[in-house]
Amino acid sequence: MIAAMVSSAVPGVVSASVAGAANPGVTADFSQDNGWVWLIKAVVILVFLLLTVLMAIWFERKVVARMQMRPGPNVHGPFGLLQSLADAMKLLLKEDITVKAADKFLYMLAPMISVFCALLTFAVIPFGPSVSIFGIVTPLQLTDVPVAVLYILATASVGVYGIVLGGWSSGSTYPLLGAVRSTAQVISYELAMGLSLVSVFILAGSMSTSQIVATQQQLWWFLPLFPAFIIYVISMIGETNRLPFDLPEAEGELVSGFMTEYSSMKFAWFFLAEYINMVNVSAVVTTLFFGGWRAPWPISAINDGMFNTGWWPVLWFLAKMWLFLFLFVWVRGTLLRLRYDQFMSFGWKVLIPASLGWVVCVAVVQGVRQFTEVDLRTVLIALAVAVLVVVGISFLVPERKPEPGAAGKKAIPPGEFDPFAGGYPVPPMPGQQLPPSPRRARVAAAAPAGAARQVTDSQTEVERG
């Protein structure tokens, strides 16, 4: 559905660009843009993303090193600033190995899909208001469409195909498991992420990124929509395959997951796409929840919003974006990887129901505001009282506790048991014993008559000890 809506919006973008007029439902005015302005913006965005990735790699190493009480990169360049460049040159010059069992076309195409889709998101992210570039007044944004946020979700969804195809086409077990996990991850956490943004659409009345920033002039949406903000932050970490949600890679379980059979520059493409996606989701949460390029209070109140004009807003946008990049690094240095069942349970049983419930609450409040004359404060107070009443009743409901000694009364069934009954081997409990070993029977049958008893006793001691 998302892809269909985005594809239907693309012809509108092209026609609006050709006509040189602003799109309806979009605050930013691109009517004065020409080919040179579009080219300059596109090149600046590309260079910005590549430099930000190099800086983010150095930043992550430094922050994690400080958390672990070690210096981090400090040899290549001042403060180790050239370490990321050295790593890039190392990957560029390494031997490129192609697996014989791989599907060659998809094996080469997968990392390109990931990088290409990661580069598309910033096309609709506003860096600031309109400024003058070579005498042409243009917004600090490449383009915008009435369904810009759906376009962002669509590109993020297609980008996961790079991980899925890369793991499947490698012709190996661990990459295949990583690809399957990636499929489950995008289905689970993309739903929670999309639902968390619905409440922003309801309050802003638009899915255009420039329009959403314009509606946050008085109040940033993360304050009234704090539950949706928290859900989005958790989902964006899961969507970018970062700890504690890096199940498609999982070095401790799957060697390197979907990237196990990749080396040299093909590995670097995946690595680049992961960090660009971190920048993308940080820019999206800044735009939708943190006021976009608008200055924080009380700076925004100085001289009638002087710091919200010109090139100043670029500084506020970058500061907010790097705040969320720091959050990525902080979480990585603090939390451990979840088990796969915990990961899926958290997505389907916690995030998605919470997102649905919050969307219903926001829709009810907004509907009451629009179709009745009830004050918003009264609605919020009534809603808060209802929530408190429900929480209070939940505390009054007695908890079911097992009877004292009930656990000790459960008799363990005597005799033999099947250690593989649950699908995986488990050790015997007290009072239980393993069935006779088929290997022991074969060895005893092949041994001479006098030695059979000795072989059986010695193997029994080994199995017990």
Describe this structure in words.
By secondary structure, this protein is mostly helical. It has one domain (2-350). The protein is built from 16 helices and four strands. It has a two-stranded antiparallel sheet. A two-stranded parallel sheet has the order 3-4. A hairpin with a 2-residue loop joins strand 1 and strand 2. The longest helix is centred in the first third of the chain and has 33 residues, at 35-67. The N and C termini lie far apart (60 Å). The model is unreliable at 1-22 (pLDDT under 50). Residues 1-21 form the signal peptide. Belongs to the complex I subunit 1 family.
Q: How far apart lie the N and C ends?
A: 60 Å
- N-to-C order of helices and strands: HHHHEEHHHHHHHHHHEEHH
Helix segment tally: 16
Question: What percent of residues adopt helix (DSSP H or I)?
Answer: 55-70%
Overall mean pLDDT stands at: 81
Strand fraction band? under 5%
Q: Numbering strands along the chain, what is their spatial order in the largest sheet?
A: 1-2
Rg over CA atoms, rounded to whole Å, is 29 Å
User: Sheet with the most strands?
Assistant: 2 strands, antiparallel
